[in-house]
Design brief:
The protein is α/β, with parallel strands linked by helices. The protein has helices at residues 24-35, 47-60, 76-89, 116-138, 170-194, 219-228, 232-235, 237-244, 278-292, and strands at 15-19, 39-44, 66-70, 95-98, 143-147, 200-204, 253-258, 263-268. 42% of the residues lie in helices and 14% in strands. It binds NADP nicotinamide-adenine-dinucleotide phosphate.
Length: 298
């Protein structure tokens, strides 16, 4: 059976946050949700880009409910402001799509002192989820979707040097951040179940999708990326399946079915051993609470 967006039920009366929704997979995820009648909040670091994306969605679906709200995941202050403002203006949250990301940039630290990929891809989303969990917990049928990658195989969690103070590798840094996102999704699922909460935590990856993500690659690879990758619209399907599929359980991981999970229709997929290491997941969770200053109520 092949899942398609046409299989998803209408989403009228539901609210979603999509991080990094101005372009790429986030944009196509937001577009599809808006097309289904969901109220969508485009959580973006650049408000001009967010407004342009909103206009583009409205030109396709004039009756869509689309809002823009500022969120820089590399800043814990921005994450806190976003969560506070969101909770003030919304009574419920059905879908939190933790999509935004960067890949293999030159070494830099976030304003809070974390390696940039760890900060934007993982820690910002960890904090955002913790701050929004009370609202998610109150919303029946809510889900948190965490974007991982085939690159979760590239890295390990460097507990002794999480921020690559020594020997930065762009590739290992991206791998670490995406492995952390996947471990977080699985650990969140275990904790939600233990706490008796009905919110589902689900992970997804797009395979290889031709987006702006590869702009730090050497030029020869940026030319090849669109040739290998599927479209952003198809790359968004595993996220949409994780968010809207009616056979999805907490702890599932969705990705493309074909070419070693690089492209194709969305299905449930498996992940590597490191992503299922329970002791490492607990250690990472505790460390992430310390580093972000956000304690989960579960
Ligand atoms: N494309 C692929 O083949 C692929 C493969 C595996 C996993 N993924 C994952 O899929 C997700 C989406 O990637 P994409 O391919 O759609 O990339 P993209 O086209 O580069 O889009 C990334 C989005 O994230 C936003 N973003 C980056 N840093 C941010 C921050 N600090 N705060 C808020 N927003 C931030 C970007 O905003 P700006 O426009 O302002 O920069 C943009 O909206 C990422 O998590 C990525 O790791 C992608």
């Amino acid at each position: 059976m092949t899942w398609n967006i046409n299989d998803a039920p209408e989403q009228h009366g539901r609210t979603a946050i999509v991080t990094g929704a101005n372009i790429g997979l986030g944009y196509d995820t937001a577009l599809a949700l808006a097309g289904k009648g969901c109220q969508v909040v485009l959580a973006c670091r650049n408000m001009d880009k967010a407004s342009a994306a909103r206009q583009q969605i409205l030109s396709r679906y004039p009756k869509a409910h689309v809002e823009c709200q500022a969120l820089n995941l590399s800043s814990l202050k921005s994450v806190r402001s976003f969560a506070t403002a969101f909770a003030k203006n919304h009574k419920k949250l059905d879908l939190l799509i933790n999509n935004a990301g960067i890949m293999m940039p030159p070494y830099s630290l976030s304003e809070d002192g974390f390696e940039s990929q760890l900060a934007a891809n993982y820690l910002g989303h960890f904090a955002l989820t913790g701050l929004l969990l009370p609202l998610l917990g109150k919303t029946s049928g809510s889900r948190v979707i965490s974007l991982s990658s085939l690159a979760h195989n590239w890295g390990a969690i460097r507990f002794d040097d999480l921020n690559f103070k020594h020997g930065y590798s762009k590739r290992a840094g991206y791998g670490q951040s995406k492995l952390a996102c996947l471990m977080f999704a699985y650990e969140l699922d275990r904790r939600l179940r233990k706490a008796g909460l009905k919110t589902l935590s689900v992970a997804a990856h797009p395979g290889v999708a031709a987006t702006n993500l590869a702009h730090h690659f050497p030029r020869v690879l940026t030319v090849l990326f669109p040739l290998v990758g599927q479209s952003a619209a198809n790359g968004a399907l595993p996220t949409l399946y994780a968010a809207l599929g009616d056979d999805i359980n907490g702890g599932d991981y969705c990705g493309p079915r074909s070419m070693r999970q690089m492209r194709g229709s969305p299905v449930k997929v498996n992940s590597n051993r490191a992503s299922k290491d329970l002791a490492a997941a607990t250690r990472l969770w505790k460390l992430s609470e310390e580093l972000s200053g956000v304690s989960f109520p579960i």
